Please model this.
Amino acid sequence: MSTHAQSQAQPQPHADPSQESATYRRYLSAVLLHGHAGAKACGLGATDLYALNVLDLGGPMTPGELGARTGLTTGPTTRLVDRLEAAGYVRRVPSPDDRRKVIVEPVGRPAELDRVLAPARRRLGELLGSYPPEQRAVLFDYFARATEAYREAAEQLRDPEE
Amino acid sequence: MSTHAQSQAQPQPHADPSQESATYRRYLSAVLLHGHAGAKACGLGATDLYALNVLDLGGPMTPGELGARTGLTTGPTTRLVDRLEAAGYVRRVPSPDDRRKVIVEPVGRPAELDRVLAPARRRLGELLGSYPPEQRAVLFDYFARATEAYREAAEQLRDPEE
DNA sequence: CCTAATCTCTTCTCTAAAGAAGAGGAATCC
DNA sequence: GGATTCCTCTTCTTTAGAGAAGAGATTAGG
Model:
């Protein structure tokens, strides 16, 4: 097993679409499983991981915005930012144009999380590097498009009526 | 925006590898975000989603095995299976060869979870369908290989010494 | 200017889920 | 066939995290 990354020029196509569906679902499960396991290994709760992903996708934002996107009221939001700040994942910066506001921005290198995710990153990097450039271009084209689709779907799950 | 799924025959390759890395990280964040949002919309806790993914990847197993893979002791494991069974996601089946054992198996259609994830599935299905067959083959080749990589990485996160 | 609205943070309370310890039934080994 | 081991489930206790309500500081509007 694990003789991956041979990557012949023409990977055999799946004949059966339902087989494709099962393959894709298992793939998503594995991605989620790995994300959860990594967060747990860092002592991060589910909400903390969620918020980090929100920040990763949405960029720096105020605690109010972060709380709204995470589905929390102001109390838990403050404590959430406290936890993330204490763990070194984010930083509070005063807003330049409104002194009531605070900007929560991700810190450059979340060391602990990066450390536990490093083995997977390395393996996936090798896997991606094993494809010829034109195939890798297809993969990254998909990644970029899928990111948008998932992000919008997640937003609609959060605010079903909007 | 959202003019996806045009998929020219040759998507432009990324010139900068660090750009690739950022694209990939954002993609993973979006996948995780969508998974969390879906679970939350169904009233599933983080552990419940984790366990469902374990079952999806590992197939039917005993509560003991599920608890071990989820990192729980026996008490919470029983309640976890109780919750999943009450919500209609899994079923307890007596083991045919050892009457002490119980097999936890996923139920065919977890209706609620499927319902909330359906919009994303549909959009991603359209996206995948928009690629010509040989490019789609590359994508599914990647999905299958990446599944193994993530699964093994998640296992090593759970049992760092093994 | 003085009032109203907005943003963050604090305190108190409450619920959901995890751990620890142990009971009961079933299989295995001598 | 009797003792030991194994698997699941139950009970009790504890902790982490969420909601509600309000205080303090700052901005906007009449």
Q: What stands out?
A: Residues 62-64, 74-75, 77-79, 98, 100-102 of chain A lie near DNA strand C (CB under 10 Å from a C1'). Chain A touches chain B through 72 residues (CB under 8 Å). Confidence is low (pLDDT under 50) at residues 1-9 of chain A.
